[in-house]
Structures are given as C-alpha cells and as structure tokens.
Design goal:
This protein has about 280 residues and is α/β, with parallel strands linked by helices. Helices cover about 35% and strands about 20% of the residues. The relative contact order is 0.23.
C-alpha cells in the first residue's frame, strides 16, 4: 500500500527560482539561502520518495478572477511550467500520477471535500521553486508530482483547521491506494511577508518561530489561528501558511523535526523551511 513517510514545508519565493535559473544562487545575497537547503537536498537524495504530493497556491496563472477554486487537485498526466510574464522557467515538465490523482479525488469528494478536478493545468513558481530548492536542477524531476492548489490569493481563504482536516483526508486517500508508493507531502508558501501598501516588506521573525513550533508540536492548537492573526502578525501574504497545515495533517500526530531553516531577507520576505519525518 502507499504510505506517507515525511513532510516538507518550504517558502516559494519567486526570486529563488530566478537566482537558480540565472546562475547567481551562490552570490553574497542568495548564497546563504541555497546553502541553508544543502542539507535538505542531501536528505532528499537519501529519502528518495516515489511521489511528491505538493500543496501550493497559484499566482493568477492557471486561475484568474473569473474562476477561483478553494481547492484544485491536479489530475493530469503532466503539468507545463507557466509563463508568468517573462517566459516559463527553464525547468523540467512536471509529470503527474493520474491513477493516484483519480483515487485521491474520489476519496476526498466522498469524504465531503468539494474539490475542483484539474485535468489540465499549468504550474507556476509556487510549485516549481520548492522542487528546485529540494531537488536542485536535474534534467528531469526524479519522481511524479500531484499538485493541490489552494486559494490564498482572494479572500476568503480556507481556515487552517480546514486545511489540517484536508491533510488528514489526503493521508486516508493515499494510504488506501493499492500500490507500493513512498510519498512525501510538501506544504509551501510563506512565511511572514507583505508585498504592498504601508507594511510592504513586513517580516515578523518571532511570530514565524512560534508558528513553526506550534505546527510541529501542537498542530491541533496551531491550526486554530484565525485569519485576522495571520493578517496582523504575518502580513497580507502570510495567509499562505495555512497550506503548511495540509502537509501537517497528512503526517502522524507526533513527528521528528529533521531540519529547520529560517532566513531573512529574500526579496523582502522571510524564507522558512522544515523537514518532518513520521515516527
């Protein structure tokens, strides 16, 4: 049977993709960030998941103001990198796993999660940057990826508690799939940041640290953080952090924290990263 071995939380700052693609990931500005992921890339080489279930948010590429699904599950055979205004990233096409995607879709819907099924979808930096940070720059991604896009762009976003419950339903779906697959679940986005108006450039390192502590050790409490606290303490884009709770819900109640990395600044935002293993 399929099983979930580990979870990864990772910011998806678009500038990190640019740095990797243009060969400046070792300079004075970006070097400390990429160095901070070196342990994680080595860990991933040893972990060797058969599949990554990746939770991210679209940045008005696959979706726009006409259609904004709260949860959209990728069920395609592959996913092309999106053109976000300056051409698609020069990264491999993301291969999907249609059989498992269909199984997850059925399981989630019968579990009362009204998801949107995407049989065709382009993916942007929200998905490809975390893959770059954990897998480097291979000619092909080493395993299939099933994307789950979550709306955290236009209010109302889902609650952290709903994302946590969804993660539990995703785990139930994966573990009922009759194929021997080792799965790693990614929760992406965040950490504290705001991109506009008077608080542009906001970073709240103390709150970010508290958020990670709750996520790892007290997820039932942490998932109850309300929208207004994310907005007040983590900035208008800090709401992306609810997606980490889909990943956390897919793991055991007790996990082992293998890696924690936090860095400021990265394009006026905070970069946060965790590796959690089921025990």
């Amino acid at each position: 049977m399929a099983f979930i071995s580990s979870g990864v939380a990772c910011s998806h700052v678009p500038a990190l993709g640019v740095a990797a693609d243009t060969g400046i990931s070792g300079d004075d500005y970006y070097g400390p960030i990429f160095d901070g992921f070196e342990f994680s890339r080595q860990w991933m080489e040893k972990e060797k998941p058969d599949l990554v279930f990746l939770v991210y948010n679209d940045h008005c590429t696959a979706f726009d103001a006409r259609v904004i699904p709260t949860f959209a599950l990728g069920c395609a055979a592959h996913y092309e990198p999106a053109d976000e205004g300056w051409g698609p990233r020069p990264v491999p096409i993301v291969k999907g796993h249609q059989a498992l995607s269909a199984h997850i879709a059925q399981s989630l819907i019968l579990d009362s999660f009204d998801i949107t099924i995407m049989n065709e979808m382009e993916v942007d930096h929200g998905l490809t940057v975390p893959l770059t940070m954990l897998f480097g720059q291979p000619d092909a991604w080493p395993c299939p990826v099933i994307p789950l896009a979550v709306n955290v762009v236009q209010y109302p976003a889902p609650l952290g508690s709903r994302c946590y419950a969804l993660g539990k339903a995703v785990r139930k779906a994966i573990e009922s799939f009759d194929e021997d697959l080792k799965v790693c679940v990614f929760g992406t986005g965040g950490m504290s940041h705001q991109l506009q108006h008077q608080r542009a450039g906001l970073v709240n390192a103390d709150w970010d640290d508290r958020f990670m502590n709750l996520l790892v050790n007290e997820p039932e409490k942490g998932c109850q953080i309300e929208h207004i606290e994310y907005l007040r303490e983590a900035g208008s884009e800090g709401i992306e952090l609810v997606m980490w709770y889909v990943m956390r819900g897919a793991l055991n109640e007790k996990v082992e924290e293998i890696r924690r990395f936090y860095h400021v600044p990265a394009s006026n935002t905070a970069v946060g990263h965790l590796i959690l293993e089921n025990r």
